[in-house]
Write a structure and sequence with these properties.
CATH class of one domain: Alpha Beta
Radius of gyration: 18 Å
Order of helices and strands: EHHHHHEHEEEHEHEHEH
Cofactor: Mg(2+)
Oligomer: single chain
Largest sheet: 6 strands, parallel
Strand content: 15-25%
Pfam family, one: Put_Phosphatase
Keywords: Hydrolase, Magnesium, Metal-binding
GO molecular function: metal ion binding; phosphatase activity
CATH topology of one domain: Rossmann fold
Family: Belongs to the HAD-like hydrolase superfamily. PHOSPHO family.
Length: 241
């Protein structure tokens, strides 16, 4: 009996958006208007690439970025929740599927000592170039019209489950914990026995309730959370059953 926990990262594990938090490193902690206005829907990764060039051009170095990123607060109760999952790893496999990037997530998890809680992290690959600039790439290519160009979380989840099945691992239940519009696609992939946990007041919760109102509800159970303590209470009930 094993459960798969799938976490989003921004506004779920951490209480902020890691990509917008990095702007604290910019001169006067803001971006020029023409850079801010250059974002096009569905092309966030390209936009962040331009933000990183701007930071590099302004002499922002890796150590300053790291210091800034490790000050992001975790969501209320999340430190306790991740501690609980870490103590019960025989029951839980745990992955992150995020539109952030490998550098930011590694820094934040490492600084808080949570690397071992997660079996895998699926996010946009990032690295510092030889000139000291942070660069970011698309996670993969996909054909899903609903998702941003660089990442379809449903595709990631499906491929992970297929790979696990090849290794002889299948799950009693999948619990998907997230907040954003790009979490809807994987939630719609979940089966009747699975659980979606959208964060209260955020886009994912609103989208799920819109689907229910238009009489095409998601198949899985839906449990809304406002602090990670709510998630922990539900996980404790699951493992009791």
């Amino acid at each position: 009996m094993k459960f798969l926990l799938v976490f989003d990262f921004d506004h779920t594990i951490i209480d902020e958006n890691s990509d917008t938090w990095i702007v604290k490193c910019a001169p006067e902690r803001k971006l020029p208007n023409e850079l801010r206005n250059s974002y096009q829907p569905g092309h966030w990764t390209e936009y962040m690439g331009r933000v990183f060039v701007y930071l590099g051009d302004n002499g922002v170095k890796e150590d300053e970025m790291k210091r800034t990123m490790t000050t992001i607060p975790f969501t209320t109760g999340m430190i306790d929740l991740l501690g609980f999952i870490g103590e019960n790893k025989e029951l839980f496999d745990c992955i992150i599927v995020s539109d952030s990037n490998t550098v930011f997530i590694d820094w934040i998890l490492e600084a808080a000592g949570f690397h071992k809680v997660f079996d895998e992290v699926f996010t946009n690959p990032a690295a510092f170039s030889s000139t000291g600039y942070l660069t970011v790439q698309h996670f993969h290519a996909h054909h899903c019209a609903k998702c941003p160009k660089n990442l379809c979380k449903r595709k990631v989840l499906k491929e992970f489950l297929d790979k696990q099945l090849e290794r002889g691992v299948s799950y009693t239940q999948i619990v998907y914990i997230g907040d954003g519009g790009n979490d809807l696609c994987p939630v719609m992939f979940l089966k009747k026995n699975d659980i979606a946990m959208p964060r209260q007041g955020y886009t994912l919760e609103k989208r799920i309730s819109q689907l229910a109102q238009s009489l095409s509800p998601v198949q899985c159970s839906v449990l809304v959370w406002s602090s990670a303590n709510d998630i922990m209470s539900n996980l404790k009930l699951l493992i009791k059953d």
